[in-house]
Design a protein that fits this description.
binds adenosine monophosphate, alpha/beta, 10 helices
Length: 230
Amino acid sequence: MSVPINLVVLGPPGAGKGTQAVVFAQQRGIPKISTGDILRDAVQSGTELGQRAKATMDAGGLVDDQLMIAIVRERLGRADVASGFVLDGFPRTVAQATALDEIMSGQGALAVVDIAVPDDALVARLALRRVCGQCGNTTTVAAGAEVPPCERCGGELVLRSDDTEEVVRERLRVYADATKPLVDYYSSRPTFRAVDGNQAPDAVGAALNGAVDDILRELAVSGAAAGGDR
Ligand code: AMP
């Protein structure tokens, strides 16, 4: 049996985590689990979770750790993660990372890849990010040009409600405060890699694939995967 790929993609808002996670998950035939998507779906369908999360998301803050941990614990308990998964947007705090270690204990190793992008490049990118109101596809539009329809379904591309300049600044502040410490939390592990996210998406994808293959080789050599070591 092949080793499951249990991948956590780290990186600031706008680093391209979501885009890379979708492509990687498709290539490897494993589910992509995005906590941001789960929350946005809940907001759109007006569930209790959505009602609890909406104001925090609109302000660029972080939804309560215990709530997020419960969502991910339930999701990682489903059968479709047997061959692995890509986590996008979780963990976002050290408390979430500690809980993830506990959830994964005995379930195989975690591979962690940080997509690193400088702050000024992030602000510029997020201003050009649009999401399709119909199918949820995320895309980058050209600066100063008219926004085209979604290339996937023809739906209208809109600015995400938390991609306004003011909220982006708050999200970057929250990232530096709460999420950047995760790089320290994971970086001493042999299953951690950082890739340069300040390049074309295909190049970032290639770097991500290379980093994960390198981690899998590392795990095969150390035998850590079989023992469920992190
Ligand atoms: P994202 O699509 O990953 O940028 O997430 C959008 C928003 O959802 C974030 O700005 C947070 O408000 C919320 N969110 C998503 N994932 C988490 C998480 N792991 N912990 C706390 N809040 C989260």
